[in-house]
## 1
Amino acid sequence: MFINREADLASNANDILKGPSLRILLEIASTFEARNVAHAVDAIVVNGSGQTDKSPFEEGHGDIPRLAYLDNNPDNDALAAQLAVLMESLPHGIVLGKTRNGSDLQRLDTLLSAEEAMRQLPVGATAILAVMGDNPAGLLNAESFAGRTPRLKGLGCNTSALRRSDGAAGTLRLAADITLLAASHADVPAFSWLEPELSGKALAEACTRARQDGFTALVTSRATQVATILATRDSDAETLEEAG
């Protein structure tokens, strides 16, 4: 059930992952300057503790939706303090890393409602994209994400982060599959991080495989990977035109 029913006022404008085939989310830091890929990016994920100022990448590209990355914190006061800093930039949404279960979504929903009220924003204006496939708890509690908040606009997988959290190599494919099933169960799109070291043929194959598996969006921290994602998107569009 939805704990915060008022958040159902969230507009469709925050459905970042809906739209043309294979959306592109670019994860950036404060020094990111690869402006030549701005035309292809559907949203940016700003990953930097306490970052509120616009990065060089964002200057002149203010129309690109801005998502703020926030690592989940079991300490509610600490999480609230981190969120308050991120909300200074009025992001379109929060990408919650290390989401362990549906209760984490409810907690963030409540904190966001308080932040929106203080800033005189419509309740539900800030979307949530939850990364569940970057930690074992999130994968083991996959069923719990459905129906917790209408703010939820996507469930994500980050196998690089899962590997760093001592996830066994054999579980990485399973992590992607569980994320896709959880997203389907919650009736939201699924998104996935690309491995940062991928390039060339291996990168192209990874993009194609992700799209065929059912991921709606790919997140990359490498501007050099954007062209390959875009090529996969263009290939999808050509296939649809031929089928039509």
## 2
Amino acid sequence: MNSKYKRTQLTLPQNTSKLLLHSCCAPCSGEIMEALIASSIPYTVLFYNPNIHPQREYLIRKKENKTFAYKYNIPFIDLDYDKDNWFIRVKGLEKEPERGIRCKICFDMRFERTALYAFENNFDVISSSLGISRWKDINQINECGKRAVMNYKNIVYWEYNWRKNGGSTRMIEISKRENFYQQEYCGCIYSLRDSNKYRLSKGRDIIRIGTKFYGK
């Protein structure tokens, strides 16, 4: 971490003390993880992203996230690659646009699993790295997060805007510093399809999985 960078001092909400951070990937979570460390907030990272396809892409993102967590001795929970259940949940929504109802259902699925794990393992607050990306609808994400904890009276969803105070800029800086893998689509097979369709319409080559990195 850059010791010269002055961060905002963070505090957990509503007298909570045990944070479970859902992470979608290392580039999105890197800034959040370092911000939590700088504020001396203990936390555990949970990786549950059955939306990511193909499996090669999933494994690249997971391995990189796990490696970064271990660099700072942060506990890392690796849950199942529940892709079959994901496809069942989004069946019939294959042609939905990005930020549409398919994304909402995808967020719901990941937040529900995060909240359940939190309940089963005595975490009292959850948050996610999903909202730091400018490609996502932060209001949609927060609504899904709040909905996921409604059935658990002792769990709070931390609705913090990780983009503010230079968070989005720091996200890119850390990704370049760490030479993170630069994924070029959200993660699901339909996002990959639509991204490639757009690229071809602009005369660009299709996405090559596992080849592009921030530091290069």
## 3
Amino acid sequence: MKNFTTVLKIAPAFLLAGSMIHAQTQDSTTKEKKIEEVVLIGYGKQKKSDLTGSITALSTADFNKGAVTTAEGLINGRSAGLTITQSGTPGSEATIRIRGGSSLNASNDPLLVVDGLPLDGVSLSTINPNDIESFSILKDAASTAIYGSRGSNGVILITTKKGSKKLRVSLNAFTTVNTLAKKIKVYSGDEFRSIVNQYAPGKANLLGTANTDWQDEIFRTSVTSDINASVSGSLFGKVPARFSVDNMDNSGLLITSRFRRTTANVALSPSFFDDHLKFNITGTYSYNFQNKGNEDAIKNAISYDPTQSVLDANSPYGGYREWIAAATNRPVGVSNPVSMLRNKSDVQNFKRFFGNINMDYKFHFLPDLRLIVNAGLDSKELDGHVTTNPYSRNGYYSVKNVFGFYGEDSYSDESILNKNANVQLNYTKTFGKFNLEAMGGYEYQNYHKVSSASGNTLLYSLDPENNFYNPDSKPDVNLQAFFGRLNLGFASKYLLTINYRRDGSSRFSKDNRWGDFGGVAAAWKISEENFLNGNNTISDLKLRASVGKTGQQDIGVYRYDYFKTYNVSSTLYYQFGNTFYEIAKANGYNQNLKWEESLKYNLGLDFGFLRNRIKGTLDFYMADTKDLLSIVPEGPLENLRIIGPKNIGKLQSKGIDLGLDVKAIQKENFTLNFNYNVSYNKIDIKQLEVNGIDKGGVGLGGFVQTFREGYSPYAFWVYQQIYDSNGRPVEGAYVDRNGDGTITSADKYNYKKPQADVTMGLMTNATIGKNWDFSMGWRASIGNYVYDQISADRSHVGNINNTVDNTINNAPVDFNSTHFITANKMSDYYVKNGSFLKLDNVTVGYTFKNFIGNNASLRVYGAAQNVLIITKYKNLDPEIFNNGVDNSIYPRARMFTLGINANF
């Protein structure tokens, strides 16, 4: 809890305006008419005041402002326990975690449900954020157990915008200038010449005369544009309808990257028989085009010799400067990063349609009983085409030990179809002070996937054995479930929720196929008791408690690992008499694979003060996961393979979530609101079948992370560095922790972890006068550490004085701090503090009201994204994807935006 004490010290800085709360309250006899807020829950809706589970509801007023191009960007930093890591790569998917996830190597992604349709994976890049009305984030098992095997890592429910009775037209557009916020500091050409002359004088003849900043050469200032238009109204005067189109174009920072997204969305809400029969029909089509810049060029831009020019008129490799071995006249060493980008094209076309039909029928003879039917599908089509210029460094290589200018021309395609249907009956009845809601249903879901890859078609005739069209059609994954929920309420003060789901997955054998999941939650509305009724200070107080069990069955490509399968050879035969039989080899399998299960506990408090001018939620939670699914090395002859999926151990996650909404000032000409959230999370491995699994490979057989009992997943496992009297690390000198007189792997120890102890978010919203608005969003992460592989790989003299391939390479300036001769990758010196405070966005807008009519408005705004990062970490950004190992990332752009929102 040491880091949580830090939170308590930092939190006042986030809430410094809290003292500005306007304490004047209305007369206690004044009654305000309020519309009870309704929140999405699993397979239904519920009044927010009646929730028994831990759920965060976010609507358009809560969303991040400014140039938001992705759906997850609307809510990044807006909910306690929700962590979103967005990449700088245009069009890439974010990593989303709710309370840290609950698995080790199986999927930790939350389930994403859009308008009642569970989508395949967390694929939000194809959804237009302008179409989203609200999010509900389900965190505890009492809320997510109704989704059984898919609710283990939390659930995110998305509702898209629907039609209205009145005709409304909206136009939203913005243009963003994307700039490089920071570069990794490496030596300039002049500095590098000095270092080479000092430490590797024998290499001085290889130096050039240029001062090339390779990062400047591969990055650019680019532009993003987004135009969205929507029409909402009543079709034929009776059917609420909405239609929208959007086009977004993001060039990205790398000189060859680009992402374009075009979407169309339609929503129809017809009703019949005096609203006894209602339909909600939604459909979204998107087309994404992505030219993926070769991101390996980012690593090479850090390493390539800065004394060399980009171009070389005498180079045989398309005129780009490259290292060539004198003895063989073949390319060696690090490739020219500009050539890597300019001479390779990696294009993907991604088409997606997902839609859902929801029917809600309230029986005429029994209005308390409703039949709800959902049917939907999610279809994805992906095709890729990669080409490399033969007359480039990367187009020249060996085929069957013969070097030549071959180039590349390869194709890939993938087709995914996810079909879903569920039917449920809901019964709601009030008996005096008792409220009853019962729901039961059945769900069917089927995942179908077919993919293929061509290999390099240019080599078909030269190397037919290793280049062929490779179709991959795996069996469908089928999920079926029976589920139910019971909500009981008494006197609007005492609430009880019981839910249950029996899930079946085709991933497991018949003996392990079905799992039972469920949860129980209770709540007490203390503020409704007589001793608090009418209290002017405490306006809301509710105590919640829950326990539930969820499951996990997604272990990636291993769809039917319990099957006994064989590979039949087309070239090897065994003679039996006069007959030749094809030889078959048994494939690996695991008949004992079963559900990963999580038992989760939650204790929560919802509170409000000063007529809910201050509102908040506080949750304490713990999750115990057993039968962890992981892909691990297997024993000799075990399951007939070297590596495969197994149930290997136990994991525990626990933490605290706090969320606050503060209406600090509410005046006619000035309002000031704050939304603050803070989360403390700790994850530990409790049990492993084999304790000590190496992770975090950094080359040459070295590993700097581990799966080990008593530590967090991917905890750093390194040697303890010894320092001299000047604080400089002594090369190759480590602490003999076990005292045996020699330094071996037994002396490695756990030094820090990649997961943050504490995450925080703060949003400030203000209106000034009747026209101006202001928004500012901050995020913080405390206690997360990063392994600096960029410096570990490059910051040593051996990187410069490479006698093997007769090349020289640049290095991060961290070399000044170490003066290492060789790489010392296992040292804890390279485990760096990655804590940060980020100012994500600042937005200022001005609204012209009634500018061409009473119902028309025009808002003009300016915004900045990725404004400021305060951190001790020296590289580009401590917020990285790769489980805490930084070997270079696509930088997140600093963006400056001008936009309009017009409504008619």
